Amino acid sequence: MPFKKLHSDIQEKLEIQKISTPTPFQSKSIPVIKSGANLYALAPIDSGKTTTLILTTLQKLNFEPKGDSPRAMVLVENKEIALAMYDAFLKFTKNSGLRVYVGYDQLHIDVQKSEIYEGVDILISTPRTLKKLFLLNGVNTSQLQLFSLDNADFLSKSSSYDAFLTVTQSITKCQYVFYSEKTHSVLKRFKSSFMEHSKTISI
After folding, report:
1. pLDDT, tens digit, 9 for 90 and up, residues 56-92
2. How many Å apart are CA 40 and CA 157, to the nearest integer?
3. Could you tell me which residue ranges the Helicase ATP-binding domain spans (predicted)?
């Protein structure tokens, strides 16, 4: 049971939310992500991808705040999804001390830059905003351990793809997990670079 092998504080949060049985996708994907492998995680809607993303992120960070720079990033398509992801994280991180921050295009970039400077463990952002933060030295990737992409099909848009590449070029070592409903040609492009030795899970 994947949940039984997660941090005890994560298990406690799962119990509060009455989540006791992993979905087939979670049973297959959580152990692979915990192993540290780069992964293409493919599954239809309502398979438990978002919860998997949250659980494995918290597990990677040992469910504790540390340092000032983001140790985990979650890239999403737009503001609405970013805010929904933030709310989903808060169900697990409230009162934990973990600092989750959400950035999006409609929020002034200087405000985001200054707030991130105060210290963030998990950064949720849209591609355009993350690129701006990076180019303005508003986000430090030196401590980054896990980079997750939610419904990564949005990378098929050239602007999102270019923004993602700009940021990844500054990352020396990091685990990448691409969540998607199905494989996409744009995702395969990374096979020749940082996803060369990645694994794929599909249900």
Report:
1. 999 999 999 999 999 999 999 999 999 999 999 999 9
2. 19
3. 30-187
**Rounded CA separation 119/140 (Å):** 11
The secondary element (H helix, E strand) that includes residue 147 is strand 146-149
pTM of the model: 0.95
Cα→Cα distances 12→4, 6, 112, Å: 11, 10, 32
Contact 129, 104 (CB under 8 A): yes
Question: Cβ of 24: how many Cβ atoms within 10 Å?
Answer: 11
Q: What domain range includes position 182?
A: 2-202
Give the domain CATH number at 191.
3.40.50.300
What's the token pair of residue 188?
Answer: 């395969």
Contact 181, 44 (CB under 8 A): yes
Tell me: the pLDDT tens digits for 139-158? 999 999 999 999 999 999 98
Encoded tokens for 44: 């239809």
Instruction: Measure Cα distances from 30 to 2, 94, 108, 150, 175 in Å.
Output: 6, 22, 36, 15, 14
How buried is 97 (Cβ within 10 angstroms: 0-12 exposed, 13-18 middle, 19+ buried)?
exposed
Say how many domains are in the chain.
1
- The Cα 113–Cα 30 span in angstroms is 32
Query: Please, are residues 113 and 138 in contact by the beta-carbon 8 Å criterion?
Result: yes
